[in-house]
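Internal ticket - ligand job 253, magnesium ion:
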Amino acid sequence: MSAAFSNQPFFSLNEVKTRYGIKKVLRGVTLQIPQSQTTVILGCSGAGKSVLLKHLNGLLRPDSGSVRICGEEITTLSERQLVPVRRKIGILFQDGALFDSLTVGENIAFPLQERGVRDRAQITSAVAEVLEEVELPGEQAKMPSTLSGGMRKRVALARALVSRPECLLCDEPTAGLDPVLSQTISLLIRRMTEEHRLTSVVVSHDLEVMRLIADHVIFLLEGKVRYAGDLAGLEQCEDDVIRAFFSAKGGGG
Ligand SMILES: Nc1ncnc2c1ncn2[C@@H]1O[C@H](COP(=O)(O)OP(=O)(O)OP(=O)(O)O)[C@@H](O)[C@H]1O
Ligand SMILES: [Mg+2]
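stdout (structure tokens):
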């Protein structure tokens, strides 16, 4: 089901709680992520950003609370019922998670094959098209181990986009990249979001990434939402914890 109303949030979480052993990682997360925009999730290391992102496509399930996608509750769905929900969503994991034994082309083709696409010509042309979009045309035959960090991120982005999802989840898409490459990847995500009218959720602790791509920002602190709103509101926010985060990052404000 597509989001029926343009003002309906793509994701809506209510009091999501998740713990590992005695560690409470998400302590009651309530948030809404608007559709067809880019939301950046900021926060310190260990705040629970990656764990939160994996709740958005049901890879992780909360101990309690509600996760809705386009109005549909997903926490009660079986793995089988989650399949069509996950098809709406492409994900770029924090470490890229490319298969090192497969070529670039085979890596990118993987989500299509997983979705049951068998037509080789269709796969070949979808892979070629998305590689052009991420500005790596003709690199299908390369092995991931021979790529630079920035190229690996772009291949991972191509793999997240190849099945033409409605939503793109990216975990630290610019980690480990120099500022120029980081800007290139950020602008690429922005362009893809606009061209394909995607709902994008980008986890980052890089303020430059946030400034380049965020329409909406969520600041996560110790498993709870500390701020949700627009960028201007965050930069003017007088919350001591958020100010400390900005000054530690040299972000001023
Ligand atoms: N599978 C797991 N088992 C046990 N603890 C976990 C697991 N995954 C995450 N955690 C814990 O949950 C907390 C939040 O982890 P998470 O990876 O979401 O942080 P993060 O905000 O993404 O940090 P970073 O910016 O460093 O990527 C951490 O304390 C982490 O140790
Ligand atoms: Mg993380």
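Auto-summary: The pocket of magnesium ion (ligand 2) is lined by residues 49-50, 94, 171 (CB under 6 Å). Residues 17-27+34-88+166-253 form a domain with the Rossmann fold fold (CATH 3.40.50.300).
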